[in-house]
Amino acid sequence: MAQFFQIHPENPQHRLIVQAVDIIRKGGLVVYPTDSAYALGCHIGDKDALERIRSLRKLDKNHNFTLMCRDLSELATYARVDNQVFRLLKNHTPGAYTFILEATAEVPRRLLHPKRKTIGLRVPDNAIALALLAELGEPLMTSSLLLPGEEYPMTDPYDIRDSLEHFVDLVIDGGYCGLEPTTVVDLTGDNPELVRQGKGDFSPFEAS
Q1: What is the rounded (10 degree) CA torsion for 103, 124, 135, 142?
Q2: Residue 181: is the preceding peptide bond cis (ω within 30°)?
C-alpha cells in the first residue's frame, strides 16, 4: 500500500522530503511532481525498481530512460558534453526539456539505449523535484507517468493513488503540475533533433 505525502509545491516540508528520499534509497518506487507532469522515480542503482517501471509502463528494451539532475554540473557527470552543447543546456535548464546525450561510464548499463549508448537527462523547474534531488545527492532515475494505452500522463494525485497504490511505494501530492510531457531533444548529432514535442519550445534549438 503506497504512502501518500502532501508536500507544498513552493516550500516543500523538509521532514517529508527526508522521508521520501529514505523510501527511494531503500528501493522504493515513487510518484512525484515535475514542471511538466507527474513522473515515476527510483534510485539510479536499483535494478528491481527499474524493472517495476518497465512492467508498469510496458516499456521495451529500446526505451530511453531519463536521469533527473539537480543542476548542469551533475548532468555533465553523466553525459559527454562539448562546449556548444553545454551552452545550449545552460540556456534551457532548468526547464521542460529532456536531452538525449551520449552517456559516460557513470551511467549504469541497464539504463542505456542498448544500441546507441545514450541516456536522457533533464533538470526540472519544480521545487519539490529539486528538493528531492538535493537531499538524495545524486540523479533520480525517472520516467513519465504515462500508462499503457493512455495519451496523456496522469495528473490528479488522488487518482494516481487509487490506481497505483499497490504498484508504487509513495505518491507525492504536489498539486497540479500539468499534463504535457517534456519536449525531447536529441543532441548527439551535428544539429539538435526534435524527438517529441511537449511543453518546451523547440524553436530556439532550430536557430542554434
Answers
A1: -50
A2: no
Q: CA 177 to CA 75: how far, in whole Å?
A: 23
**pLDDT(208) > 80:** no
Instruction: Print burial letters for 50-76: b (CB count within 10 Å at least 16), e (below 16).
Output: bebbbebbeeeeebbbbbbbbeeebbb
Beta strands 193-196 and 183-186: pairing type?
Answer: antiparallel
Task: Answer whether residue 62 shows pLDDT above 80.
Answer: no
Q: Which residue in this structure is represented by grid cell 527511494?
A: 24
Tens-digit pLDDT profile for residues 109-129? 888 777 788 999 999 999 999
SS3 percent helix, strand, coil of the chain, rounded to 5, is 30, 25, 45
Three-point CA angle 204, 95, 183, nearest 5°: 65
pLDDT digits (tens, 9 = 90+) for 131-150: 999 999 999 999 989 888 88
Strands of the chain, DSSP E = 3-6, 30-33, 38-43, 66-68, 97-102, 118-122, 140-144, 170-173, 183-186, 193-196
d(CA 95, CA 36): 9
Q: How far does CA 14 lie from the centroid of its chain?
A: 21
pTM above 0.90, yes or no: yes
